[in-house]
Amino acid sequence: MTKHHSTRSSGANAANGSEIKIDPQPISIRGVNVHYGAVQVLKDINLEIKPGEFFAFLGPSGCGKTTLLRLVAGFLSATSGSVAVGNTELEGTPPWKRDVGMVFQSYALWPHMTVRKNVAFGLEERKLPRAEIDHRVDAALALVGMSHLADRRPSQLSGGQQQRVSVARTIAIRPKVLLLDEPLSNLDAKMRVQVRQELRDLQQRLGLTAIFVTHDQEEANTICDRIAVFSDGEIQQVGRPMDLYAKPANLFVANFLGTANIIDGTISVAGGSRNFITASSVMLPVDETAVVPEGAKLVFRPQHCTLSRVDPSDVLLPGLVESIEFLGASVRYVLKMGSDTILVEAPFQSESSVRAIGASMEVFLPRGAMLWLKK
Amino acid sequence: MLIQTLGFLPLIMPPFVGAVAMQLLFGRNGTVNLLLEQNFGIRLPFMEGLNGVIFVQSLHYFPFILINVSNSLRQIDSSMEEAAQNMGASGFSLFRKIVFPLAMPGYLAGAALVFVKVFDDLATPLLLNVKDMLAPQAYLRVTSIGLADPMGYVIATILIAVSIFAMWASVAVMRGRDYSTVQRGGGGLARRKLKPLEAVIAYSVVTLVLLLVLSPHIGLLLLSFSTIWSFSPLPDGYTMAHYGRVIGESSIYIKNTLVYATTAGLIDVVIGGGIAYLVLRTKLFGRQWLDWAASAALAVPGVVLGIGYLRTFYDVTLPNGTPLATLPIMVILALAVRRLPYALRAVFAAMQQISVSLEEAAENLGANKQRTVRRIVLPLMLGGLLAGFVTSFATAAVELSATLMLIQSSSDAPIAYGLYMFMQSPAGRGPGAALGVIAVLLVAICTFASHVVIERSQKSLGMKK
């Protein structure tokens, strides 16, 4: 089914894709605070999203990312602060006058209308002439490769098809910006990979500014230009996916994007050498030039460790093998370093090279891979 | 399916109608006692005084308990039972320790409902000539001594207090005991395979109970076709004359019922829809109170409501001197208030099934609140609105307690009132029974038709799996 559709849609896109062109608009969010009763769910949010950017709100559930998206759509109002799309301030504008297209997590297709009626709804509400409506509905359905199912009811469609209709319905009104609320979470794993690429292609072709809400770092990393990482109603960091991984701003970001070893300890300078002493008194040398803020913890990725010294300056981590997980291409060792548990991933070469449980093991960490982060 | 159909019977037939039929079957000179006397020379006082009221009401409202308990049982996950078996429980101890406690909420809910209904019933004791109960007393006081008699109001207050207490008690006991334990994919208790002997016993018990429960209805049907039925196990002869008489003379009752019940049902659906929208979709201050206030009507017995309306509006007169309380509009209002909780529940359930995101999607695409309600909410709620209307309509059509107080002339009377009038005289019992059968058929047809429509619309929306 998927193959059939994608060939179909790419053929149709060539004909109709150029027809729908939307002027990319910037989105600026300034000083936004949102309270639910006594609980503050968004704290002083500031974001400038560039025209044509595919931007992700990433974070665990309850972090405020969906709240901010709904604020842009106008389904709730902020205690203070402002949201603007292009040059238009949106404060006080009801949802139906905002022209910000939203794709809902549940797709929110109306079960009592056919696919065609669903897509035509927004155009009918705008009182466009019938011919124009028909024309735009056809174009939008063709764009997502759903023309042949126009007379079906939503209940007769698969999840992926419903998702496409939902996108077509939003695109048909030619919104200023596109808001996607976890659009992939109701699809199975295989569809998710395919549909996220389709969404990216569509957004690129239309040149539309889009906000993509997700809790899945892989989705955000693969299709988004920039990501804002949310936690506890605050933005932790904004940046390109690779920057977030390589230079996380704090412990939350380091831990949420990928896996990180986090080790507590204190810096001590004695006899001209600078060391990091862990809670269980393991001593690790630290560069003179390294900037270590007061109370910072040592953070490093399991993949950055090696089992043999590569550079003379590499830091030695002494450990005891507690357990081993075979992941296929690599082997993950769970090591005890004093009272700390650390994860180390090494490429799998042969069974004989895998260390035994209980054996002591020396691991090496490049100095550049040592990050010093606070909460 | 049989259980569901049974469940509707007490809703659409007032118990006093059954009482008359029961007297013919179980009364001093009824079928059963005549047979007992011929064969064994004994008579059993099934229908004497309070016995009769208890007997009639417990048979009549049996399906209410049955439905509640079987819902409860259906919601018990089979793994509960399997876990108990795994721990070594079986047979009666399994039932006593696991199944029965888990079904308890169903019993309680059913019992509270039946208590309030029986408590409020006025016509059954009156027809069985039992006057020493609260509801009949309230009625007799007001009708014989007059509106000014304070005792009527004292009784009314007691009625309300006890009703509210009963409902509160059932809620209080059930608090924190929501035992719906069905997991996804798991379905109810395991069905048992009965041994042949067990099956025979089980089937005969079920058949006996069914016969008892259906006996008022069977009796009514026989009565409506009988020429004379007295001092004999079965009617002496059969005739269609009663139907002819009813259709000839009493079509006014049918017309009135349709007008009252339809109007009351419409009022309920409109008000219920409004309340449901306010409570579920807005942040209006005090919206929860609105819901409670509307549902409180459940705890107000019909007699009390009738007396209340009569008292309040009797002194308010039209320019020509007619008291407002005697106008048919009062009957409609009283019915609408009485049945609002039923309609409200149906409409509430329908609106809760509509995901808010369906409405948000419409707003996002440019439809304002009114347009969203018209194009999205209303079409999706159609089934629920219809269900609410039917529940209101069907129950309002057979309501007697409140209307008995408010009806002044028989030209304004609905079927239930007509039935009551017929049933008071022995000669009227044949036509009365015929009218009863017509009422049951009328309501049953409407209910069935609406069920079909609702099912069909839900299927086409793909809402039903």
What can you tell me about this protein's structure?
The complex is a heterodimer of chains A (about 375) and B (about 475). The radius of gyration of chain A is 25 Å and the shape is elongated. The two termini of chain A are about 45 Å apart. Chain A has 9 helices and 20 strands. In chain A, the strands form 5 sheets. A 6-stranded mixed β-sheet of chain A has the order 6-7-8-3-9-10, with helices on both faces. Chain A has a 4-stranded antiparallel β-sheet with strand order 2-1-4-5, covered by helices on one side. Chain A has a 4-stranded antiparallel β-sheet with strand order 18-17-16-19, with no helix packed on it. The longest helix of chain A has 18 residues, at about 190-205. Chain A has helices at about 1-15, 65-75, 115-125, 130-145, 160-170, 190-205, 215-225, 240-245, 250-255, and strands at about 25-35, 40-50, 55-60, 80-85, 90, 100-105, 175-180, 210-215, 225-230, 235-240, 260-265, 265-270, 275-280, 285, 295-300, 315-325, 330-335, 340-345, 360-365, 370-375. Chain A is of the alpha+beta class and about 375 residues long. Chain A folds into 2 domains: about 1-250, 3-Layer(aba) Sandwich (Rossmann fold); about 260-375, Beta Barrel (OB fold (Dihydrolipoamide Acetyltransferase, E2P)), CATH 2.40.50. In chain A, helix 1 crosses helix 4 (about 130-145) and helix 4 (about 130-145) crosses helix 5 (about 160-170). Chain B is mostly helical. Chain B has a domain at about 245-465: MetI-like fold (Orthogonal Bundle). In chain B, about 75% of the residues lie in helices and about 0% in strands. Chain B is globular, with a radius of gyration of 24 Å. The relative contact order of chain B is 0.11. At the A-B interface, strand 6 and helix 3 of A face helix 17 and helix 18 of B.
Helix/strand order of chain A, N-terminal first: HEEEHEEEHHHEHEHEEHHEEEEEEEEEE
Poorly predicted sequence stretches spanning 5 or more consecutive residues of chain A: 1-18
What's the multimeric state?
A: heterodimer
Q: What is the structural class of chain A?
A: alpha+beta
Distance between the termini of chain B: 18 Å
Note the run of SSEs of chain B as H and E.
HHHHHHHHHHHHHHHHHHHHH
**Overall residue-averaged pLDDT value of chain B:** 75
Largest sheet of chain B: none
CATH superfamily of one domain in chain B: MetI-like
Distance between the termini of chain A: 47 Å
CATH topology of one domain in chain B: MetI-like fold
- Rounded mean pLDDT of chain A is 88
- Structural shape of chain B: globular
